[in-house]
Description:
Blueprint: E1 9-14, E2 20-27, E3 36-45, E4 60-62, E5 65-67, E6 70-73, H1 75-78, E7 83-87, H2 92-96, E8 99-102, E9 105-108, E10 111-115, E11 125-126, E12 129-130, H3 132-144
Parallel strand pairs: 6-12, 8-11
Antiparallel strand pairs: 1-2, 1-7, 2-3, 3-6, 4-5, 8-9, 9-10
Amino acid sequence: MRKSYSEGDIFLIPMKDGRFAVCQVVCALKGRFKKAFSFGVIRIGDDEKAIMEDGDFLFYSFGKRRGNVIFTSTANIRNGTWKIVGNSPLTPEKEELRVFQCAGHLYCGDEYIRTLQIEEYSQFNTLGVAGFELVQNHLLEMEQG
């Protein structure tokens, strides 16, 4: 059964080592990018019981870039593999993370803003959809950082 999700939803990603990542949906994309969504990781723990408290997102490195938002497929959140456990409104700082670039165009969620100059590309998160294996790798790196 397909589950619906929305911005601010708190969900759990089971990690390969038995721990859980407590995550929050940043962009619940519904338009042209509807097969992807973005999220941040609030914390990583040993226990499935998520404490509903807000927190800053953990960072990870990917090549020379450092980020705190991951874009991935909606499949695992829609099919319930990643269980939604609550909702907490996005803070103003997290709202800013809804802005991203894709192929030289700037978006805020599903809303198109404008075309970017090449030198602006690196100023924004890039919609680059990570496969589930890469998501697991990012989670393991966050824990170490």
